[in-house]
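Researcher: We plan to redesign the surface later, but first we want a full-length starting point. Tokens attached.
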């Protein structure tokens, strides 16, 4: 299957690809800093790190390495604060809600494969009224992206072959997982990609600069099938 062929199923990364979760993750990070008597960080500084997970946000907020004895407690504090605001300001990226509605109307499968724990992913997608055919989270399987198993699991649940899927993501590990799984690897530049990230060696088969252009491409493929 080429990147220009209409896939039978769509699989999305969650944070920075399907949903802009950075505002709420930034709020949790700044609440951690305030808890330690520190000033809030500017939003763009935090946004550049959110794809790297809670541990990276703790390191950013408090300058604590992952092996520091206080790191685990700080991470749990951050996650507890995040649970309080998990869907306050997070939004589906422009164009993607309409795409999903049309995709579902065509009875085509779609899902989410994320390294986000289920305790935070489920309430987020419920608050946004998203109803994926499959949701695979960090704690569902023994391995996570960039290993291909979560993508294979999602494809089986949707009853499609891996080569019939697009996997869309904003991180190198997403593209590596898609490549290893035999799916079409679709990268998006609008996500949480640090400015210094070398994008040229990502194993992506197609790039999209905006969520609207991604939605337009897929809607056009649907219309022309």
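Model: Full-length starting sequence:
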């Amino acid at each position: 299957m080429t990147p220009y062929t209409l896939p039978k199923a769509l699989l999305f990364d969650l944070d920075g690809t399907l949903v802009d979760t950075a505002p709420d993750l930034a709020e949790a990070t700044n609440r951690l800093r305030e808890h330690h008597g520190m000033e809030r960080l500017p939003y763009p500084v935090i946004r550049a790190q959110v794809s790297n997970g809670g541990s990276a946000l703790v390191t950013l907020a408090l300058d604590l390495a992952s092996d520091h004895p206080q790191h685990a407690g700080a991470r749990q504090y951050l996650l507890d604060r995040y649970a309080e605001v998990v869907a306050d300001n997070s939004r589906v990226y422009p164009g993607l809600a309409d795409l999903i509605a049309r995709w579902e109307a065509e009875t085509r499968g779609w899902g989410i494969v994320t390294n986000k724990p289920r305790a935070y992913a489920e309430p987020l997608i419920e608050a946004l009224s998203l109803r994926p055919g499959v949701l695979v989270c960090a704690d569902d399987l023994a391995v996570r992206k960039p290993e291909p198993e979560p993508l294979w699991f999602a494809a089986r649940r949707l009853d499609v072959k891996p080569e019939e899927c697009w996997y869309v993501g904003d991180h190198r590990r997403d593209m590596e997982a898609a490549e290893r799984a035999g799916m079409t690897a679709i990268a998006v530049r609008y996500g949480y990609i640090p400015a210094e990230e070398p994008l040229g060696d990502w194993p992506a088969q197609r790039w999209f600069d905006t969520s609207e252009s991604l939605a337009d491409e897929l809607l056009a493929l649907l219309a022309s099938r």
